[in-house]
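hey so i finally got around to running the thing on that chain from the lab meeting. sorry it took forever, my laptop kept dying and i had to restart like 3 times. anyway pasting the input first so we r on the same page abt which one it is
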Amino acid sequence: MHSFSDAAIEVARRLAADADLPPVTDGEAIDPDSYGLDNRLTRCVLSDGKEVLLRQSSFLMHSPRNRVDFLRGNRIPVPRCYAAGDTGSALWEFVPGRPLGDVVDRKAADDIVWWRTGAAMAAVHAVSFPAPLQGPIGLNGLKLRFLDPVDQLHQDIDAVRDWVAITDSP
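ok and heres what got predicted. didnt touch it at all, straight out
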């Protein structure tokens, strides 16, 4: 099976050791055409026969652990993340199947595939935050801060003050 690079197997072995998993003995690239979008996906086999997924991002990114915990806390099913670092690589629970891009490319995306994709996206987008929190949601996480509505109103007024002429008479 061994069809992935020595660098990838070393990353997988390090992450498996970090997670106290049995050693990685073999692996196979499961999306050589980059259907993992910005990720290289490799199915790895551990010495006990268990399969895990090595996901390697094409750019540096923070560990997904906080995002996984947040999604699970909001009842969004997410595969288990065994180990991750701030290099864009993570070792995940292996879920059999094909990447969505592969299914679409093979023209095998039927109504059930699109329904499941839509249901998963709807569940993620239905997560709500407490009213007094605000901030950008980025690819690498959430940067939320408490919001005082009165203070926000004052900031909004200050931001447009130059556009507003204050006079004593109408």
